[in-house]
């Protein structure tokens, strides 16, 4: 999907956002004006006495946006091949505001905006009309602030925001971090005093960074710096991988071919798959395998795992998400877990430090766990020398987790294979771990032949898209994508979301799967709610019974839901999809014991029955939400958007 953006809509620099945050939290006139009315600011910079109204107003805004998306999608279905005019869009806007709110005017006058918001606030909480007594406000003193700690917080802020740039940030980013750190202290001072303090903090931050350019006069906006901790971590990982990597012996190709034929006589491994399976099943200490979606990585793992077992050794598959590891583990008949589950099992713990940074520590047997207060008894998962740890979806492997994993490899004598695709989703933390493995790996293999696609033209086009030789070829590929109908042009975000809703509904009617990808969770929620609204209008959902999911989202009978975290006790995985509801007999019996009567006479379900991929297990305390594809996912092959047939039942308690 291609969106034509307005040329004047330029995002504000990070420093401008930080300056606004600082002003809203520290300006004496503003703080005193609030105090005179009995209001104070909390640690997040929100007005403490009004913070409970943020969620209702945000939900109202989200409801309006979802209404707009759903109505636009409906209009396009009624008028195939047409685009709504300005007048139609205005009508849709008015309908979106009025829908679901009785006694609201059908037309919105901009001059009545303040009154409208006032009424929205009173609807959410009538008590806001009450006057509050004035209060005295005492802020933190400038003299009491720890400049060194503020500098550390500023670097943590800049480092966290540099994930998309490989850990690189600019002096302007450092100053923005300093301003945010100052704003969070609760200090109240004039702007000139705060500016001087910000200068002092920025001066201290330089000792916590390394410069990446030799030029002494680098402009402040150039991302020429990196946190010392991140640079040191990258160097440590590179050195430890280099120490691990050494020559060794792959499994014989004849053996790989024989086992592949025994597992599936109808499928023949290509040369790259054969090389990959041979390396994984051999004694090579460090292997890096890359390949696009559909190049047969799972098939390769299945053969390699069978070969390892034949020689009395095991394959342990881990991935950044439990769902991805479970899928690979089932296919390869191997032990599988999320990467962090394995790290935790081997004593690694991670907590938030005083500066807001994530601190990783490793427990030795007998050490007391920082959160449980219980002694660490050692790992449950046995890894022997020569066993193969496979990191699937390794493009999502972050530096900290990679460093801890290498420690486990050193301690156990295991070998490692990282398998993934640099063009797929990046990790939540700093990326670059897979590149470091590939740089030092003794065996490097690239899978190039795509097996999954039924359309050979699309297979070829997707491959060319990955390996464009330059601007001219990229332009040719883009034009071909448009010419072959793979792009949809939109001019606004609302149109983009409406197109996604329409595509989902059409795919659902054809019983086809589809992955919807958004940039943020907020956008994903808006699209999900718009789909829900359309399904309510067509009668696909039963709104007489509902549960409350994440962020109090209403979930109706027939809705598709998605879990939002792992639970090892019941075997439920994060991002597992299911349909809300069951047979009428089961639902009726279950509803009698798990509903709560509200004051208005309606019932709220306090336990949610959800079809999942697993066999029946005890109830879990998961949050659920309407599913759309995960945010920030550049491809539809992100593990969170994988799908599978539903074969069992779980009960989940919405919270």
Please provide a brief summary of the model.
With 655 residues, the chain is an alpha/beta fold. Helix content is 42%, strand content 13%.
Would you count the extended β strands for me?
22
- The mean pLDDT is 77
- Oligomer state of the chains in this structure: single chain
Distance between the termini: 35 Å
For the largest beta-sheet, the strand count, sense and barrel status come to: 6 strands, parallel
Based on Cα principal axes, name the global outline.
globular
Cα-atom radius of gyration: 28 Å
Helix content: 40-55%
Strand order of the largest sheet: 7-6-10-11-5-12
Structural class of the helix and strand makeup?
alpha/beta
DSSP strand content: 5-15%
Number of helices: 21
Structure explained in plain terms:
The protein has 655 residues and is α/β, with parallel strands linked by helices. Helix content is 42%, strand content 13%. It has a six-stranded parallel β-sheet with strand order 7-6-10-11-5-12, sandwiched between helices. A hairpin with a 5-residue loop joins strand 18 (595-597) and strand 19 (603-605). Helix 6 (147-160) crosses helix 8 (191-205) and helix 11 runs parallel beside helix 12 (297-310). The longest helix is centred in the N-terminal third of the chain and has 25 residues, at 54-78. The chain is globular, with a radius of gyration of 28 Å.
Protein traits:
655 residues; alpha/beta; six-stranded parallel sheet; 21 helices; disordered C terminus
């Amino acid at each position: 999907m291609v969106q034509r953006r307005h040329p004047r809509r330029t995002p504000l620099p990070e420093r401008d956002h930080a300056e606004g945050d600082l002003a809203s939290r520290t300006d004496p006139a503003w703080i005193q004006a609030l105090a005179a009315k009995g209001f104070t600011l909390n640690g997040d910079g929100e007005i403490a006495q009004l913070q409970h109204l943020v969620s209702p107003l945000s939900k109202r805004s989200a409801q309006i946006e979802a209404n707009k998306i759903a109505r636009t999608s409906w209009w396009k279905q009624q008028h195939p091949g047409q685009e709504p005019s300005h007048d139609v869009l205005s009508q849709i806007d008015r309908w979106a505001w009025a829908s679901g709110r009785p006694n609201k005017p059908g037309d919105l006058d901009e001059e009545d905006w303040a009154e409208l918001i006032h009424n929205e606030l009173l609807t959410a909480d009538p008590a806001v009309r009450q006057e509050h007594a004035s209060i005295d406000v005492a802020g933190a003193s400038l003299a009491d602030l720890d400049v060194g700690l503020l500098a550390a917080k500023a670097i943590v802020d800049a480092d966290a925001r540099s994930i998309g740039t490989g850990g690189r940030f600019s002096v302007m980013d450092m100053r923005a971090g300093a301003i945010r750190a100052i704003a969070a202290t609760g200090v109240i001072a004039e702007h000139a005093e705060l500016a001087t303090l910000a200068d002092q903090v920025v001066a201290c931050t330089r000792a916590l960074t390394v410069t990446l350019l030799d030029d002494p006069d680098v402009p402040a906006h150039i991302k020429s710096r990196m946190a010392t901790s991140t640079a040191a971590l990258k160097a440590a990982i590179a050195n430890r991988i280099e120490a691990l990597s050494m020559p060794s012996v792959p499994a014989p190709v004849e053996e790989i071919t024989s086992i592949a034929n025994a597992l599936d006589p109808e499928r023949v491994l290509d040369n790259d798959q054969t090389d990959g399976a041979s390396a994984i099943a051999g004694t090579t200490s460090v292997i890096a395998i890359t390949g696009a979606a559909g190049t047969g990585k799972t098939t390769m793992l299945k053969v390699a795992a069978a070969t390892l077992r034949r020689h009395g050794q095991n394959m342990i598959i881990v991935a950044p998400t439990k769902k991805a590891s479970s899928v690979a583990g089932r296919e390869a008949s191997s032990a599988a877990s999320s990467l962090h589950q394995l790290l935790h099992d081997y004593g690694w713990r991670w907590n938030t430090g005083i500066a807001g940074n994530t601190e990783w520590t490793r427990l030795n047997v007998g050490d007391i766990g920082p959160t449980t207060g219980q002694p660490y008894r050692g790992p449950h998962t046995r890894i022997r020398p020569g066993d193969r740890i496979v990191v699937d979806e390794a493009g999502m492997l972050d530096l900290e987790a990679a460093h801890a994993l290498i420690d486990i490899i050193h301690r156990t004598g295991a070998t490692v294979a990282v398998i993934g695709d640099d063009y797929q989703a990046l990790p939540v933390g700093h990326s670059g771990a897979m590149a470091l493995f590939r740089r030092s790996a003794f065996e490097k293999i690239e899978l190039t032949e795509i097996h999954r696609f039924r359309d050979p033209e699309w297979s070829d086009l997707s491959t060319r898209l990955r390996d464009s030789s330059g601007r001219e070829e990229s332009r040719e590929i883009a034009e071909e994508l448009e010419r072959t109908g793979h792009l949809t042009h939109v001019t606004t975000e609302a149109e983009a979301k409406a197109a996604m809703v329409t595509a989902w509904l059409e795919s659902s009617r054809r019983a086809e799967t589809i992955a919807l990808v958004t940039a943020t969770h907020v956008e994903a929620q808006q699209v999900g709610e718009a789909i829900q609204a359309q399904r309510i209008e067509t009668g696909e959902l039963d709104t007489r019974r509902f549960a409350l999911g994440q962020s109090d989202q209403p979930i109706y009978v027939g809705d598709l839901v998605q879990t939002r975290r792992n639970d090892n006790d019941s075997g439920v995985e994060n991002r597992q999809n299911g349909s809300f509801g069951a047979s009428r007999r089961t639902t009726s019996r279950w509803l009698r014991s798990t509903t709560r009567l509200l004051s208005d006479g309606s019932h709220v379900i306090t336990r949610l029955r959800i079809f999942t991929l697993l066999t029946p297990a005890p109830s879990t305390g998961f949050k659920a939400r309407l599913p759309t594809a995960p945010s920030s996912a550049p491809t539809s092959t992100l593990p969170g958007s994988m799908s599978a047939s539903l074969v069992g039942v779980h009960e989940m308690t919405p919270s």
